[in-house]
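quick q for whoever's on today - can somebody do inverse folding on this one?? i tried earlier but teh output was garbage lol. tokens:
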């Protein structure tokens, strides 16, 4: 069930075990490449990662227009039919995305994601790339 690049299995499983209703967890780079996943199909995780890159870019642009705070996107939550989608910054050039069903309580999910990012955020980074190569 866990597919990863690097040893992310323990941290993603810990989040999944801590909150009921999680269907998929994806760790992605800012440019939309899947770094790791828990649950779901690999192709679905790749599509979620790609979509999240656009979503976080859009949210970042909106945040830059606001005069309150530091202008960084902290958490996006979208209520969908029979569930929720969450996207949170998780380190330098990395993001944590979660899809869950309705059993998941949004406040608990965001708190658990935040705790995970605080504890292991330094490990959830994606080095910048230029022309497809790590720089």
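ok took a stab at it. sequence:
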């Amino acid at each position: 069930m866990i597919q990863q690049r690097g040893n992310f299995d323990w941290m993603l499983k810990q989040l999944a075990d801590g909150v009921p209703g999680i269907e998929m967890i994806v760790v992605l780079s800012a440019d939309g490449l899947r770094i790791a996943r828990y649950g779901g199909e690999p192709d679905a995780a790749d599509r979620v990662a790609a979509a999240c890159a656009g979503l976080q870019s859009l949210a970042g642009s909106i945040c830059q227009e606001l005069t309150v705070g530091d202008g960084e996107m902290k958490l996006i939550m979208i209520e969908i039919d029979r569930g929720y989608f969450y996207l949170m910054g998780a380190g330098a050039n990395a993001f944590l995305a979660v899809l869950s069903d309705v059993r998941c309580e949004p406040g608990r999910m965001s708190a658990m994601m935040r705790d995970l990012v605080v504890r292991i955020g330094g490990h959830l980074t994606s080095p910048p790339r230029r022309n497809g190569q790590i720089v």
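fwiw The domain at 6-126 is CATH 3.30.450.30 (Beta-Lactamase). also Residues 1-5 have pLDDT under 50 and may be disordered. so keep that in mind when u check it
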